[in-house]
Amino acid sequence: MAKNPQEQKMQNVVSLCRRKAFIFQSSEIYGGLNGCWDYGPLGVELKKNIKAAWWQDMVTSRNDVEGVDCSILMNARVWEASGHVKSFTDPMVDCTKCKGRFRADHITNNQCPTCGTKDQFTEVRHFNLMFKTFVGALEDSSSTTFLRPETCQGIFANFDNVISTCRVKVPFGIAQIGKAFRNEINPRNFTFRSREFEQMEMEFFTRPEEADKWFEYWKDFRYNWYLKYGLKKERLHLRPHATDELAHYAAGCADIEYDFPFGRAELEGIANRTDYDLKRHSEFSGKDLSYFDPTDNKRFTPFVIEPSAGADRATLAFLVDAYEEEAERTVLRFHPKLAPIKVAFFPLVNKEGMPELAEKLTFACKKRWNSFYDDKGAIGRRYRRQDEAGTPFCVTVDGETMTSQTVTMRERDSMKQERIAVDQVMPYLEKQLNGD
Ligand code: GAP
Known about the structure:
31% helix, 7-stranded mixed β-sheet, 27% strand, alpha+beta, 2 domains, 13 helices, binds glycyl-adenosine-5'-phosphate, single chain, 5-stranded mixed β-sheet, Rossmann fold, BirA Bifunctional Protein, domain 2
């Protein structure tokens, strides 16, 4: 059956990701591992730039957010306190005909999505999504713990450490970027639903009476963050949760959703988690996690506003949003701050000192930005290769360079070329790449 244009687009993006070394299947030479992905040389740069932009905007450029980097394995009591041991489950059914396993809430008309059989499912069972493991040599219940299914619990467990060692005052936040693991029943849509993924989470601690105000602030801030780095507004949506959708700990929640080629889906959630987590950890650890405010001599347990984003979902959204097929080329129109390679240098021909100068410029730029040197093939093909990698600028050293000390600077989106002086290459790029 012919694919619809959106399915075709997704297939083309997936194939470009493989061809241009953005994303590979994990352990591909062994047939892969479902729900796990590896980032190749271009993908790792893109994802690293997305995480760096998040860290810069959420931590470094602010004076009210601190960063942490917590361990993936934690004391198993953390997951009892957080409620994950008891209730981090998905409802699961098996098709008795084809033996396929599905999330019960993803089934429509009681029909198997794989073989199409109707009304042939087992009873719903609840399946805990945490990966279990053992710490130390003994494999028994006393040594059991879990790979963290979300990064925020490390933040709550360190609330008191940060309060007592850094001069922070409520309202303030603690941020973390790191791996999380969920044994998803049906990993799907490329990297969108994976079993191993990265989260970018920030827990913002506020006075209870100010929680609503900060909830509004962070919804707005996070929605605009995706626009700042180029996601198209018409594909980005902020959806408040209905009351019956809210997690047991949340007083309010909104999702930032993106129109992926496979449909509208969650990029990030912003939740008002109330004082649930700090109170639960106080109860389970015996450590008082309330906060004393010296400005009015009041003690209270802060409320938490949590913007929780997925680094892999953001990477996928920036990839599909940037992807465009034109008559003569396929181009990734990444925001320059996110682009994996910032500039490529080409000698027009491999003689007359052109390769030497192009290489010299490449290494000078490599000290500041990920830069690329290419002397293979016709110049048009070299431009096309960089368009597919999303490189915003290409510089060609040609015959005129040797006489006039100028090069051609070519911009990816407009494909416009201009001659600039060799000694202006770095200042030009500095302005384009590092200016706000
Ligand atoms: N601490 C709150 C929390 O973890 P969540 O909605 O379960 O909330 C937050 O996850 C974000 O993590 C999601 O919006 C998504 O971007 C990312 N995420 C969750 N599960 C994922 C999965 N299986 N694969 C990729 N990203 C995932």
